[in-house]
Amino acid sequence: MSAGVAITVTPDIGSAPPAPAVGAAPSPPAPVLVKTTIDGRRVEVIGRQLCLGGVPEADALTVLDEHPNRQAILRAVPLATHVAGRVPLTMAEASVAQAALRRAQDRFDGSAAAVQARLRQAVWQKSIADGADA
């Protein structure tokens, strides 16, 4: 008899991850880095929010031409074309952020709770647009 040899089977390094179970919630998308601020904080799109240092800042970008304080923003950041909350963005940064926000928006969740949340948000936005106080 020969000595026992242990054979170990390992998955291929480039193999795909296992498929999620049927009915399982989709995994959240990975954060998308938009830029790093001068003080070292990361501006990222996490889910449906643009975050500054991991804290949600805005859920949409505003074109600088539509911002009430655009002159002060342009004095501080001459190349800014958009803002997201307190964060000024150049055209390239805004493009990255908008694409990531759209990808997050396109990930449709058809559960009853998600539909109710979207409906609540739409009603809220409509009431604000019609002049209701925030």
Describe this structure in words.
This protein is an alpha+beta fold and about 130 residues long. The chain has one domain (about 30-130). Helices cover about 30% and strands about 20% of the residues. The protein contains 3 helices and 7 strands. It has helices spanning about 70-75, 90-105, 110-130, and strands spanning about 30-35, 40-45, 50, 55-60, 60-65, 80-85, 85-90. The strands form 2 sheets. Strands 1-2-3-4 form a 4-stranded antiparallel beta sheet. The chain has a 3-stranded antiparallel beta sheet with strand order 5-6-7. A hairpin with a 2-residue loop joins strand 3 (about 50) and strand 4 (about 55-60). The longest helix is centred in the C-terminal third of the chain and has 18 residues, at about 110-130. The chain is globular and about 45 Å long. It starts with about 30 loop residues before the first strand and ends in a 5-residue tail after the last helix. Mean pLDDT is about 80; it is low at about 10-15.
